[in-house]
Design brief:
Elements: H1 8-55, H2 59-90, H3 94-135, H4 146-149, H5 153-157
């Protein structure tokens, strides 16, 4: 059998097409790597902002939030209960009964929301406590020297204690 020889122009054409394919693949790789880098930078920025938000949540701020939220809900509940009592004393027609039922539903919803808020705060405190134990430092309140001032009541109530190595101070608190 005689072997046919491939024409030179066909070899050159295949070589040129291979070079074009290689250049296109290289260009696509550069574009994709740039897009990937931008996506990773955006992800890092989002994580940094989440980290900053979590750093701002101290036990005292969480406690203030819970106390303020609870106070608002309790005031609203008292106000609605007083209105409900006044409705009971002035007479009960169909509209007043419906209004009372609606107010009771609102009160129940507010109490549920307060329960969810407290659960969320408890979960956040557990996460912060776990992170505190993992990182090996003790949270302290700004302006309180635990060695000279002793432990404030709020500090003991949160379950914090002095440690021999850190003296009860938290180095990341300004």
């Amino acid at each position: 059998m005689a072997q046919e020889q491939i024409p030179l122009w066909l070899n050159v054409l295949v070589l040129l097409l291979s070079l074009v394919a290689a250049v296109l693949a290289w260009a696509a790789k550069i574009v994709w790597s740039t897009e990937f880098r931008k996506a990773k930078e955006a992800q890092i920025d989002a994580l940094k902002s989440q980290l900053e938000a979590l750093r701002d949540l101290t036990p005292m701020k969480l406690r203030e939030y819970v106390v303020a939220t609870r106070r608002i809900y309790e005031e609203k509940i008292q106000e609605l209960e007083e209105k409900l009592r006044s409705l009971n004393t002035t007479g009960q027609d169909e509209m007043e009964i419906q209004d009372r039922d609606e107010r009771l539903r609102i009160i129940q919803k507010m109490m549920e929301n307060l329960g969810y808020s407290l659960e969320t705060v408890k979960e956040m405190e557990m996460v912060m406590e776990r992170n505190r134990k993992e990182q090996g430092f003790v949270l302290a309140y700004p302006g309180v020297n635990l060695e000279t001032d002793g432990e404030p009541e709020e500090y003991r109530r949160c379950g914090h204690t002095k440690t021999p190595e850190g003296g009860g101070r938290n180095n990341d608190v300004d």
